[in-house]
Amino acid sequence: MVRELQRQIETALFQRLALSLDKEGIMALAREGYKADYENFTIQDPYIFEFLGLPTQQMVKEKVLEDKLISYLQNFLLELGKGFAFIGRQYRISIGNKHFYVDLVFYHRILKCFVLIDLKSGLVQHEDVG
Prior knowledge:
Blueprint: H1 2-10, H2 13-19, H3 23-32, H4 62-71, H5 73-80, E1 84-95, E2 98-108, E3 113-117
Antiparallel strand pairs: 1-2, 2-3
C-alpha cells in the first residue's frame, strides 16, 4: 500500500489524470493499485523501473541500465515479484564452442527455473531472440 502510494506520488498521478482522456480508468487503477495474480500470472509484464530515476525521454545504454538495476537490486527484486533470487550479472553461458554473456540471471524458486534477462535498449534483432 505504501509502495503503491509512493509510486502514485512519484509518477505524478495528478498530472497524468489531468492529461488523460480515460480519467475513470486511471482513478480505478490508482484506487485499486496493481495486483499481480500469482496463481495464473507468475512473471509480471511490463516492469516499471521508475525507481531508477533514469530520464524517460532518452535512450539509455544497457550498461547504465544494468548498473542502476544492480545498485537498486532490492527494489528490482520487489518489482519482479514473488520467488526471485539473484544469481549473477554478465553470466557466461557456453554452448558448443561459443560463449555468450547474459546481463542478469535470476532463479525463480516457485517455478524452479532460471530466468535470464538480456537487456536491450534498441530494437531487438533476430539473433537476440532464442
